[in-house]
Each structure stands twice: as C-alpha cells, then as structure tokens.
Write a structure and sequence with these properties.
The chain has helices at 4-33, 40-50, 53-72, 88-91, 94-105, 108-133, 142-145, 149-167. Helix 1 packs antiparallel against helix 3 (53-72), helix 1 (4-33) packs antiparallel against helix 8 (149-167) and helix 3 packs antiparallel against helix 6. It has 176 residues and is mostly helical. The chain has one domain (4-72, 107-167). The chain is elongated. The longest helix has 30 residues, at 4-33.
Length: 176
C-alpha cells in the first residue's frame, strides 16, 4: 500500500501513544490531583517520566504534519502501476493537476494549518507547565502538585485539540 509508513506513523503517534497512553495517563494524573483515585506509582513517576515524553513526540508530530502533503498526495499513485505507465506527455501534467485538485478539494492547507497551530499551542502550554514545575519542591507528590492543576488541565486540553487535528487527516490517499 502506498504511504503505509506515513499512515503507520500517524496511527502509532496519535492513536497508540497520544490518545491511548499519554492522554490517559494525564487524565489519571488529574484524577490523582483531585483525590478521585490513588495511584502512588503514577503520582511519583508522572512528572519525571511521563510528562517529559511530550517534547520528543511533539517533534515527531510536527514532522508527520510536514510530510503529509508529499506522502499522502494522490500524485503518489502515479509512481505505481497502472498509472506509472501513462504516456510521458501525460506524466508531464496529470500528476500535478491531480495534486492541485486534491489540495483544493480536501482543504489540505487548512488541515496543515489547524494541526500546526494545535501543536504550537500544546508546546506552549507544556513550556508554561514545565516552567512552573521548576518552582515545585516535590514533583512526586500530589499534595505539592495540586497548585498546578489548572496548568495540567490546560496542557491536557491543548493535547486533545492537537490529537483531534491530527485525527482529521485522511487515513488513505484520497482520489479526487
């Protein structure tokens, strides 16, 4: 399948990691801060091990978004049979026409802008949170971290928006 690697990266990043691990852990951590649940392992490890996963994964998400247009354009279909057997004269114009029609009809630039903006907001919320946490005397204690709950919640909200923006990308090459 064409662009399976892009699709696999998208699923791995957004569904497997962001939605089903990171946001779940962040939600559980907020429940710890609210005294709704007890999880001493997550309480001790969240700030040190879970939260710091964001910067690396954010870079992956930004790279994923940056490669979407190239990797998921229907122009890629002209690299394989049967379309790669088009006459050279046709190959000079048809793949580009298909690409430009796809850009317009699928509102690709809007998808890219939405995802990039959402990731930038999540990065900014993460930076604000990390800056505040430098003043926390004990980042392994819910008691000490409760005062930052609003910033944890804001970060979670921006991560959810980023996940939804990434989820809007088509999961297969769209034929226009």
């Amino acid at each position: 399948m064409i662009s399976a690697s892009w699709q696999e990266k998208c699923v791995s990043l957004n569904h497997d990691w962001l939605m089903n691990r990171f946001l779940v852990d962040l939600g559980s951590f907020l429940n710890i801060l609210d005294d709704r649940i007890e999880d001493s392992i997550l309480e001790r490890r969240f700030v040190q091990y879970v939260l710091p996963q964001w910067p690396k994964r954010s870079i992956e998400a930004i790279q994923l978004v940056a490669t979407f247009e190239t990797e998921m354009s229907p122009r890629k279909l002209f690299e394989r049979a049967p379309l790669n057997r088009c006459a050279p004269e046709t190959m000079n114009w048809l793949p580009d026409l298909v690409h430009y029609l796809w850009l317009a009809r699928c509102r690709v630039q809007d998808l890219l802008e939405e995802a990039n903006n959402a990731l930038a907001l999540a990065d900014a919320a993460y930076s604000r949170l990390i800056q505040l946490l430098t003043t926390c005397p004990n980042t392994q204690s819910a008691l000490h971290l409760r005062q930052y709950r609003e910033k944890f919640t804001a970060f979670r909200s921006t991560c959810e928006v980023a996940s939804k923006a990434i989820n809007r990308f088509p999961s297969r090459i769209e034929i226009v």
